[in-house]
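// run 5 | inverse folding | seed 20
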């Protein structure tokens, strides 16, 4: 009888461990909004910020009436993920914010005034509200660190990739939209180390726009350097839309990613502070990936292409797929 009971007890224990997110595997997702490595941010902490926003910000009250507070919840979680990542990246790279600029900014606090309730896109409104309900010193510090990170690497960062494009839907009896078509192509390109070259050759023969060995320095294309090819390791396939104004998808396999490739271009305009911060944010992608960030499903899923949260995996801005059998460095 004991021989039968012991396995039953073991199964019950294993079931309980699985329910709680795994015994001995670090913080449990139960009660967590975010698990970032060994760091946990609770649902209660995010809810406190949401409650504060609704109390203090008329714009948050407007989102509540419109049943769009989910936008604010996702934005708060996104900002907290970025905060964790930039804090760790800055420590590793020895970056500190410009103290004089930090104090000058806080002295004339740009986050003191409430968010306008008119003429603002709800997603943009959620971003502005989230900035105001978080600690203002932390928000400004994060932004300065992102700029510092972008400044450090913009003249040293370059990627080399092969790509194909998706510019039309598939019609017929089984229509496929461009997003699904691009994701399907990315999965085929990632099936083996040779698959990407085969897909690109076939697409080129079919008249699609393709390229092989495209090397892009960040300093020469700062807007492109904010996009997902600059944040993944070599041997990774990505599918993404470079512009929301055009329904064109790029599917690329990153061949090289160099963080120590000085590029001298006297004619390249200096990136703006916003571009530097966006490049810095993209450089956080390996930190987020390495931490194995986990998001409570109530807020959505982490979208590495957008460095943001999406409501579901079907609504991400694209995909990131490691090539099977390729070395990841």
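// decoded
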């Amino acid at each position: 009888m004991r021989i039968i009971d012991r396995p039953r007890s073991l199964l019950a224990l294993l079931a309980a461990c699985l329910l709680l997110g795994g015994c001995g595997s670090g913080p449990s997702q139960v009660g967590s909004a975010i698990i970032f490595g060994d760091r946990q941010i609770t649902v209660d902490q995010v809810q406190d910020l949401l409650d504060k926003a609704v109390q203090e910000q008329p714009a948050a009250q407007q989102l509540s009436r419109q049943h769009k507070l989910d936008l604010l919840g996702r934005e708060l979680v996104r900002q907290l993920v970025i905060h964790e990542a930039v804090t760790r990246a800055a420590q590793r790279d020895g970056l500190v914010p410009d103290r004089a600029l930090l104090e000058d900014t806080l002295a004339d606090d740009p986050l003191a005034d409430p968010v306008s309730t008119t003429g603002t896109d709800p997603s943009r409104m959620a971003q502005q509200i989230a900035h105001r309900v978080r600690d203002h010193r932390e928000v400004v510090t994060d932004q300065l660190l992102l700029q510092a990170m972008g400044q450090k690497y913009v003249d040293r960062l370059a990627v080399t990739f092969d790509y194909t494009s998706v510019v039309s839907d598939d019609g017929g009896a089984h229509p496929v939209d461009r997003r699904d078509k691009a994701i399907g192509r990315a999965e085929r390109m990632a099936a083996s180390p040779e698959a990407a070259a085969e897909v690109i050759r076939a697409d080129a023969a079919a008249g699609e726009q393709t390229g092989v060995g495209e090397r892009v320095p960040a300093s020469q294309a700062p807007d492109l350097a904010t996009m997902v090819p600059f944040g993944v390791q070599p041997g990774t396939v990505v599918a993404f839309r470079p512009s929301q104004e055009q329904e064109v998808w790029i599917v690329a396999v990153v061949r090289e990613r160099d963080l120590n490739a000085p590029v001298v271009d006297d004619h390249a305009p200096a990136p703006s502070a916003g571009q530097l911060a966006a490049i810095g944010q993209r450089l956080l992608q390996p930190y987020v990936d390495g931490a194995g960030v986990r998001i409570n499903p109530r807020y959505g899923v982490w979208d590495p292409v957008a460095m943001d949260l999406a409501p579901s995996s079907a609504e991400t801005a694209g995909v990131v797929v490691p090539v099977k059998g390729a070395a990841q460095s």
